[in-house]
Amino acid sequence: MLKNVFLLLLLIIGGYTQAQEKTFVVSVNKPIAPIQPTMWGVFFEDINFGADGGIYAELVKNRSFEFTRPLMGWKVEQQPAEEGAVLIQNRGIAHTANPRFVRVTVNNRTKGTLSITNEGFRGMGIKKGLRYDFSVLHRLVSGKVKLYVELLNANKEIIGNTEMVPDGGTNWSKLAASFTASQTEEKGSMRLVFEGNGIIDLDMISLFPGDTWKNRPGGMRADMVQMLADMKPGFIRFPGGCIVEGYDLAQRYQWKKTVGPLEERQLLINRWNYEFAHRPAPDYFQTFGLGFFEYFQLCADIGAEPLPILNCGMACQFNSGEVVPLDQIQPYIDDALDLIEFANGAVTTKWGKLRASMGHPEPFHLKMLGVGNENWGPQYLERFKIFQEALKAKYPQIKLIASSGTDPVGERFNLLNTGLRALNTDFIDEHYYRPPQFFFSNINRYDNYPRNGSKVFAGEYASHVPNINGAVKSNWLAALSEAAFLTGLERNAEVVQMASYAPLFAHYDGWQWAPDLIWVNNLQIVGSPSYYVQKLYSLNKGTTVIPVQQDNKIIDGKDSLYATAAIDAASKEVIVKIVNALPGEQKITLNFEGVKKLGGTAVHTVLQNDDLNKINTITDPDAVAPKVINLKISGKKQAITVKGYSFNVIRIKYS
Fold first, then answer.
1. Does 374 qualify as catalytic in the annotation?
2. Interval 217-233: pLDDT, tens
């Protein structure tokens, strides 16, 4: 049924005629506009357990007992039971960032009679033969206590363990040990067993796999970072998204609380903890083990420009709608100014010194900054204007990104788009979560945008296929519509200079929002069809847009074909992207004008599936994945066949 409805839609949109061979003229010697290195990037928000329980590789949930319910994620087991054997202590204002710890009283306990077990984030993913690094802040208040650390499989059998003897002392110190797992388990847990006679305090109880990204202690989950690195994104937008705004201003994201020693980073409830009644996540908090330093470091690792987004003095307007009075907005502006110093300042500056102390004396070379996320109305315009004046006065080279609200059309959008262009804002961030027909119908959205003045950042977009049965994972129809829409973005690279899909990650057992680009469980990772669309655009962006036309017209939906072309000056290649949104194959002749000679071979990459409902899964991760065909080239014309429901990228050497 879905196929029939979709085909009818395309017949209407595309003006389909009986299939016949078509000629696409690619004018290599007629450059239209440069394509920015930042054209295709990624957007990261801690939603769907994307950070804690996701890319941040910590396996222990509620490691410092700071959740609203201090023992959430922990289970106390004791035989015989003893009142007060395990107590949460609260130091209150003496330690605002990390007030709680657990005190365990061990009264002549033998091994196995007193323990606490952590369930992890929907379990702990354990890999056979891998090293695991355990650590804990502790102080031995009195007596002698022996500590056993045990990894358990789903049947509560021990699959890795070590033992430790705290060395005494009333000052807090770190205790650490490493051991190897003997079995693979997706839903494991960790048990701490106490033996002896004494009192011990524990805080920041931590377990990391040994195979983190770049093998950094306390680092990120390597397979998730690798999926990003493989895309070679031009930028990473972080940390959100709606968490920047917060339900109210008290719950907004504050970057200064996410840097420095881990035990001094103040935990915050994640707004996605309670946002959706149908997908509650009462155990969703932000520990900020993945903080602004780690975001900047990740950008540097994979060669992406950092694009931090900061609160502009406005909470989420869908929730509280709280705003800070204009005469009290200076601290928010100071946060933005200080962030630029943290990223770029010399080590002799306050915030540059902090960056250096965290292990990165070299600057992060921040070039752009977002002010607010999905904020709207005249109250946003007046606050953005104040930010822009202050930031440009001190750092005129920093490009500023402004919000155009939640929707790409309507009075709200028109007010912001007009007002921000009047302010000569560097970038206006447009968001669109819409059904596939929106993406197919808006290929020409930017054709008539002004070529001068404010540029467009397509900061959040995703094609949403209607589905009432749970998670609407990105299927091939959604991805195909996005591939078509992006031809219009690339063709208008003079206007649109950055774009990123959203959201990025989702945990199969902990998602709140769908569709998403990449899906994970505790051990495995799957790129959606949309992931491969984004990756193909990013890896094949080229350096300059050139015309590709049929009958002297752009190819924007006639016969349900969509196309764009570019040259890559570095590799001396022509890159042609073609989307065929019909079920049947179509034959096309590519006629290259303005070149002396084409190379003898071409690479034709195809993303295709006959089933528009197809998704990639753990058991079938490559159901919709790129396949490469090598073509022989003779002359300046090349005949190709584009399969039904396909996205095609053709790269040909030229001189």
1. yes
2. 999 999 999 999 999 99
